[in-house]
Amino acid sequence: MAFLADPTAQPYVVEDCRGVLQLLSDGTIVRSTALPFPICNAEYNDHDGVEWKDAVYDTGLGLGLRMYKPTTNAGEEGNKLPVLVYFHGGGFCIGSCTWPNFHAGCLRLAAELPAVVLSFDYRLAPEHHLPAAHEDAAAALLWLRNELASDPWLADAADPRKVFVSGESAGGNIAHHLAFRFGKAGLDPMRIEGYILLMPAFCSEQPTQSELDSTATAFLTRETCDRYCRLFLPAGANKDHPLMNPLGPDSPSLETMDAGRVLVVAAEGDLLRDKNVEYAERLRAARGKENDDVELVVFAGEEHAFFGVKPTSAATGELVRIIRRFMATEAAC
């Protein structure tokens, strides 16, 4: 005998992402304006030495960004500032450039690097599965190439020949794929000097030891990671999909990535740590020589996404100093 679903039954939660996003049994998607972790407002006041404004880079999709530039401490007189592009984390499912924690982090980057910082939004899953986020990020860089020359707010301060592309977690994954797509010279006359991957969201079907060792109390658990993957991967795909596993069987060889210098930041207590370290080591080996074009830094005692979660912390301060040094280093001839 066949049993039919009760049409009067109330929809129930099938997937829950930190209380910010819920997928219901009837396919309804519920998004909350709440933040996924506590925010202390006193710690997120605007920086006196940075001005910022919002803009839209894709009117059709309603995708925006937040732009920052220092008003003081801009370096030697007559020199324009480097540009740092930033893509936020959130498992490709949650997050916005307007969230207070990401805003605070970008304020800090703009003030302490110093640099012109552009924090871009992108379409989120499950409404938009991958590769939507990657397509939006590529469109963001194409938009920036034009705006750096035409928008006085940017053109007066930003050096289009010193652009760095960064992102944390899902944003770090995006930065990797942008490196494959554009490299260091694919957006002429804008030049990308380097890519900065902060705890990039790379996984595989075969779990690493850091995944197996991850605890249920970690900021990013295996359960949470699996939930995100179910929501954002293309239909029928698993974690070895090239958009998720850059070292997978169907992924392009890292030898073909002409991206110049790359900084990879991992966190000791992150379940993604081993995959991040392996990525950096494989990328270094793919260059075919001993060089300092690929830098790996592992933060002891920190968990996944500590930059986005704790933008005012001492660890984030050290991370900003590492990024500043990386951006100031001249590319090898």
From TrEMBL:
GO terms for molecular function: hydrolase activity. It comes from the Eukaryota. This is Alpha/beta hydrolase fold-3 domain-containing protein. Signal peptide: none annotated. Coiled coil: none annotated. Pfam families: Abhydrolase_3. The gene is LOC123409644. Residues 84-307 form the Alpha/beta hydrolase fold-3 domain. InterPro entries: AB_hydrolase_3, AB_hydrolase_fold, Carboxylest/Gibb_receptor.
